[in-house]
Design brief:
By secondary structure, the chain is mainly α. About 75% of the residues lie in helices and about 0% in strands. It starts with 10 loop residues before the first helix and ends with a helix.
């Protein structure tokens, strides 16, 4: 499914950030889906959306590289993110 993001959130920039922070393709897609949902359902300032995307990239990057991961926690987090 092709996601149409606001012009200020470049897909190349998301990919560059993913590589720099080290988030997975799943993490990148989840962020894109979340920002798309906010764009279509909420009337938020573009700067707010950009900051949300940045914060999520950093959180997902930290979470995916944390040594304390357990499959159950990862599964539950993914399910929660998909529902919100």
């Amino acid at each position: 499914m092709e996601i149409s993001l606001p012009a200020f959130i470049e897909l190349d920039a998301l990919s560059d950030m993913r590589e720099a922070i080290g988030i997975s393709e799943w993490g990148e897609q989840t962020i894109q889906d979340f920002i798309h949902a906010l764009t279509t359902h909420e009337d938020l300032n573009p700067k707010t959306l950009k900051e949300y995307a940045s914060d999520l990239k950093h959180f997902i990057g930290w979470f995916e590289t944390a040594d304390h991961q357990e499959e159950e926690i990862i599964f539950r987090l993914k399910m929660w993110l998909l529902q919100h």
